[in-house]
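Q: What structure does this chain adopt?
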Amino acid sequence: MEINTTYPPTLPPYPINIRYILSVALSVTCFVGLFGNGLVMLSVVLSRKLQTKTNIFVFTLAVSDFMTCLGMPFSAISFVHEELPFPHAVCTLGACLIWVGVGSSTINLAYIAWNRFMLITRSRTSYDNIFCKLNVTFMIIFAWAFPFLLYIVPVFVLLDGIGYTEYFHVCMTDAFAYLGVFFQIPSSIVIVVCYFKIFRHIRAHSVGLKSHTVKGEPSSSSHSQSSAEYKKNGQSRSKVTLVPSSATTPTVTRKTPKSGFVQSISSRQVQVTKNMFFVVCGYYICIMPYAIVTMFTDIVDPKIWSFALPWTTAFLLLNSCVNFVIYSFNHPQFQLVFHKITTCNWREIPQPSPLLQSILSLRR
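A:
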């Protein structure tokens, strides 16, 4: 399947030295991304401690980034050849892996933002009702099916859209880039709204905690006792209390009037939410240059646009290995499991999964 994209005939050939640099950049991103995302997936599979509802979407995000990395070698190789060194169908396959992976990553980031929002700001009952096994299964199916239908189906129906671009010598053409608005814009709205509401919620609880501290409120045990008496009296209005999460560290809690559930905003939940926010920031830092270049295609000088497009695309694909770096430096649980796996101390992995237990029993 040969896909030819028409560019102004006045454009000079794309510099071979720049293509070599881009090929090396893609190769490094591919290697780090395959290793890092593979390690993330393996960690979630082997440790029950990491098998939370949030990490289900982290796992799916890692699969999406892993798929994107699988498509990079085709472009890295084609960059350094004047003619496509393998069949066009193989080139199209590599491009499809990239764009479906990028699309699925965006949707999964929106799921993670929504998950953190529900976990921190809503009752446990509401959270469990929305993120039950059936709903999570449908969410994951949608995260893969939607970009597949947008990008892959047109390739086989119209025999056009994704494949090899002769001018850039790359397997990454996306004639249907505008279709990305169907998940980029809605996902971005969900992400921004959820994290903004999370910030407001945590800030409000922090202010309440400081207010109790300044006024010299009774001890935590007194608060717990008064909460029990409050519940016994059958009063229905909301109440903010202090419940100790450890011997010395207080945790802000909120009791919802409908379910009676007392939800704690622990420092761990806040840290996990911050890590997920960093992941989102990394994604948008990587995608924004590409989005700006593609949005102003008809305005920017063709020479500038044609030179910038491969660089911004390579920067976009850099996001495929950024998440692993964030987990490595900011997520203590992933850090621990990463260390045990890479040092081959699999028996020391915390809360080993049934699969890991079976593997270890076979090695005895």
